[in-house]
What does this fold into?
Amino acid sequence: MLDYSYLVLHLPRGTSRDAARRILTEHAEYGDWELDRLRLYPDGRRDIRLRRKIIRVTRTM
It folds into this structure.
């Protein structure tokens, strides 16, 4: 069974599409986050939920 860690970002309505893309790209490249859900509201604000796998180390001996 996979376990995930979640990160929620709230971007205000003045954030451009290019700036939002840069923010998500940095999280994906440097933090190993992947997009789980993006919600775009009619007023322009965005709620973004990112996730990454939690790797559990098991004992072999």
